[in-house]
Design brief:
Number of strands of chain A: 10
Radius of gyration of chain A: 18 Å
Bound molecules: adenosine-5'-diphosphate, magnesium ion
Helix content of chain A: 25-40%
Number of helices of chain A: 9
Mean pLDDT of chain B: 81
Largest interface: A-B, 50 and 44 residues
Shape of chain B: globular
Radius of gyration of chain B: 27 Å
Strand content of chain A: 25-35%
Order of helices and strands of chain A: EEEHEEHEHHHEHEHEEHH
CATH architecture of chain A: 3-Layer(aba) Sandwich
Strand order of the largest sheet of chain A: 6-7-8-3-9-10
CATH topology of chain A: Rossmann fold
Oligomer: heterodimer
Order of helices and strands of chain B: HHHHHHHHHHHHHHHHHHHHHHHH
Largest sheet of chain A: 6 strands, mixed
Chain lengths: ~240, ~550
């Protein structure tokens, strides 16, 4: 369960307004797609949700925990995949995963699962190499495994499909679906419409920091001025600068 | 002319003098620090020049006694040549082989020679000021002590420009041969650290040698040393013809020598470039391949299964960040090892006769246990480790923010890491000095806990500065430590803290308290402040780890 209320954030002392008065609720068991053009404010919103940035206004709650009251409590139940992988380059892949598992206090007997995750993403052979020798896609996979290894209640991903090979991208979508089916919450941003269309129970479209449409996909399609058969057309219409 | 276009681009793109570098300072509201830093550098350079001039006067007198007025020029040019050669090696390696732009340059339609020449000229521009810093004072000293002809000034300008070409050519030639002979990529970090330590040793040795020359002159001790020095001067000058010509060129009938020396420097430079440029780009691309295949034993990630405590994991993380590049390693170990190194070098260059005189000098120091306590504490707590602790994490600091860790845990691990790094070094330094100064062992009663307290205090001041405004967006590790203004601020704060304690110690001594009691009180005071401030710093850290920073 994610609840954002009246969330706002600006950069450089108010000069750049990145997110404005955002309200949003995502229910457990849902995969929520957060759509918007480049620079719309998706990453900024996500960074506030995971504790990377402080909001100027508004509140963030997850599973009933308020981020300003108990940031650690929230971080413990989140798995976060950033848009650019953030890793320690001079660690080996396995040492990095061990580090993350230690921080989340994953007990030794549950760690066989982490190796299985690596096997699923075809990263097993590279686990003992230095992360600095990984390709971009491999880093991204490592980042996904690190986010999943403590079985988070809330799975948050920022543009996760970009840079993955077809098999991994298929696998990730599988994992996201299965996570939601287990009653957990999945929240991800993207600007690739096909992914959103296939995967999401509900979507929200953000533009210039404002939420301009939220709802189940089918509902959104019929609500709009012209009836659209694809999400892409709806997206183009809603975010068109020239109307 | 592609060479010069390339040179301009690399200067614009990489140096912090560029418009982009200034813009970044401006964005961080730190433009005011520029004049402050400038003033600090001027003071440092000023005092270095004053020291040089005093030494140069001694060398000039020595040379005149030996009938060789060119001695001063010879030695200043020799000093500059050695320095530049040594500095060329680490800087040249990173500029020629490991700078970020090589990845971009390889696919561009450029010739080997153009890249090598542009990079070598970049190196030359970078090292020219150093040469002038060592060379110009020699000109000033000579001109103010001897009558000089007009040729002298022409020569000054010419030598100012040409002399560095020789050591740079030598250095670059050495590097290229070295890189052809061994695959340095795999041991790059170790090699760089070794090179920097060696450089540090040379600088320290040079300093100590100069002070020693001065000291022997002042006390006049040992005519024998002096005679030996005269002989050495003569032998030295004759052994190195190119520098001898350069030095002789400064005097009345030296036009021929001048020409000879210019031809040597420039010729050597051009010939070296022509000899080494071949296959440079090919070597670069081969190196990039070998960098990415650093495979090791295959355990299929069994490391994952071993669980460690949070604190241990965090300390491991600190170590991985510190050891991720040579700049950080050198910074840490340079600071830890600087005192033993200094003592080592000193003991090498001090002859036996002088050592006895030194002993009696040391015996006259009042309260030696307090003096060395203060000195070693100063060495241990004035460091760039705590004040760059967050900065060193760089972009990966974002990971620290998203992990479910309290600021207490983060700070605890960083503190423990600092103690592991500096406390053994502190004890080692202390032991060495206590033996040299024959301090009674009982002083350890306050020296051990006191050092502990001061190391914590030093950590707390340093980390507070870095918590306020860490430098996280660096692209080269130098920017995180050497060019990080937090280091300066925190060093200033540490000096104030230790100075205040020294002041209290002085007052207590004045009031008639015994040496050991004073030491004990200061140690207690430091421990007390450390315990008092720690919770405050944790509360402060909570803000920095709570998303206050725009990243
Ligand atoms: N650190 C920052 N400083 C200043 N402006 C920023 C910063 N990060 C993002 N922005 C601005 O905020 C807006 C939203 O950015 P972002 O949330 O990254 O967009 P998205 O992820 O939707 O592409 C953009 O206009 C961007 O330029
Ligand atoms: Mg984004």
């Amino acid at each position: 369960m994610i609840e954002l209320k009246n969330l706002s954030k600006s950069y450089q002392n108010g000069k750049v307004k990145a997110v404005r008065h955002l309200d949003l609720t995502v229910k457990p068991g849902d995969v929520f797609g957060f759509l918007g053009p480049n620079g719309a404010g998706k990453s900024t919103t996500i960074k506030m949700m995971v504790g990377l940035l402080q909001s100027d206004n508004g509140s963030i709650q997850m599973n009933g925990i308020d981020i300003s009251w108990d940031p650690l409590g929230i971080k413990k139940i989140i798995g976060y995949v950033p848009d650019e992988p953030i890793l320690y380059d001079k660690m080996r892949g396995s040492a990095f995963l061990a580090f993350i598992a230690d921080i989340f206090e994953v007990p030794g007997e549950k760690r066989e699962k982490i190796k299985n995750l690596a096997k699923d993403f075809e990263l097993s052979d590279a686990l003992d190499d230095l992360i600095s020798s990984y390709s971009h896609g491999m880093k991204q996979k490592l980042s996904i495994i690190a986010a999943l290894l403590h079985d988070p209640e809330i799975f948050i991903l920022d543009e996760p499909i970009v840079g993955l090979d077809p098999r991994s991208s298929f696998l990730l979508k599988e994992k996201m679906r299965r996570h939601a089916e287990e009653g957990k919450t999945v929240f991800f941003s993207t600007h690739v419409m096909e992914v959103a269309e296939k995967l999401c129970d509900r979507v929200g479209i953000i533009h210039h920091g404002r939420m301009i449409a939220v709802g189940p996909l089918e509902e959104l399609k019929t609500q709009s001025r012209n009836s659209h058969d694809s999400l892409e057309q709806l997206f183009l219409e809603l975010t068109d600068e020239n109307v | 002319m592609k060479t010069f276009r390339l040179l301009r681009a690399s200067l614009q793109g990489t140096s912090w003098f560029s418009r982009g570098g200034l813009q970044e300072l401006k964005n961080r509201d730190q433009l005011w620090l520029l004049p402050l830093g400038g003033a600090g550098i001027l003071v440092a350079i000023g005092s270095f020049i004053m020291m040089l001039i005093r030494n140069y006067q001694g060398i000039l007198a020595l040379g005149l006694q030996a009938g060789r007025p060119e001695a001063l020029f010879f030695f200043s040019l020799l000093g500059s040549t050695i320095f530049i050669f040594l500095i060329t090696i680490p800087f040249g390696i990173s500029l020629l082989y490991f700078s970020r732009d090589t990845r971009m340059l390889i696919p561009l339609p450029l010739k080997d020679f153009e890249i090598v020449a542009a990079k070598t000229l970049h190196l030359y521009l970078f090292l020219l000021p150093l040469h002038l810093l060592i060379f110009i004072p020699a000109v000033v000293v000579t001109a103010s002590n001897l009558t000089v002809c007009p040729l002298f000034y022409i020569n000054t300008v010419i030598q100012g420009i040409f002399i560095p070409l020789l050591p740079i050519a030598l250095g670059v030639g050495f590097i290229v041969l070295l890189m052809k002979a061994v695959n340095i990529s795999r041991h790059k970090t170790a090699f760089e650290v070794f090179g920097m330590l060696f450089g540090l040793m040379m600088i320290l040795g040079f300093q100590v040698l100069l002070t020693r020359v001065m000291a022997s002159e002042l006390t006049g001790e040992g005519q024998a040393i002096f005679a030996r020095l005269l002989e050495l001067v003569n032998r030295f000058i004759d052994a190195l013809p190119p520098l001898k010509w350069a030095a002789m060129g400064f005097f009345a009938d030296g036009a021929g020598y001048l020409l000879l020396s210019i031809l040597t420097s420039a010729g050597f430079f051009v010939i070296t470039l022509l000899l080494i440029h071949r296959g440079f780009i090919k070597g670069l691309s081969a190196r990039m391949e070998s960098q990415s295949v650093s495979r090791v034993r295959k355990g299929k990630g069994s490391t994952i299964l071993r669980q460690r405590s949070i604190t241990k994991s965090l300390i491991y993380r600190e170590w991985k960040i510190l050891s991720s590049n040579s700049t950080f390693i050198f910074e840490a170990f340079g600071e830890v090892l600087v005192l033993p190194l200094l003592l080592l070098v000193f003991s090498f260059v001090t002859p036996g006769e002088a050592r006895e005189g030194l002993d009696s000098l040391l015996a006259a120091i009042p309260h030696p246990e307090l003096i060395i306590f203060g000195l070693v504490v100063l060495f241990a707590s004035i460091n760039a480790m705590a004040s760059t602790s967050l900065s060193r994490e760089g972009r990966s600091f974002a990971l620290s923010l998203t992990l479910p860790l309290s600021s207490r845990e983060q700070m605890k691990a960083k503190l423990l890491f600092q103690i592991v790094l500096f406390f053994p070094a502190y004890l080692l330094n202390m032991t060495i000095l206590m033996i040299i100064l024959k301090v009674p062992v009982g002083a350890a009663m306050f020296i051990v806990p006191g050092g502990f307290g001061f190391i914590i205090l030093g950590f707390l001041t340093g980390i507070s500065v870095d918590l306020r405004r860490p430098v996280l967006t660096w692209s080269h590790p130098q920017q995180a430590v050497k060019q990080n203004l937090n280091v300066l601020v925190s060093m200033g704060l540490s000096v104030v803290v230790i100075g205040a304690h020294a002041g209290i110690a002085w007052l207590l001594l004045k009031a008639g308290m015994g040496t050991t009691m004073v030491g004990f009180s200061i140690a207690l005071l430091a421990l007390f402040f450390a315990a008092l401030l720690f919770p405050g710093v944790i509360r402060y850290a909570e803000k920095s780890y709570g998303g206050r920073l725009e990243i």
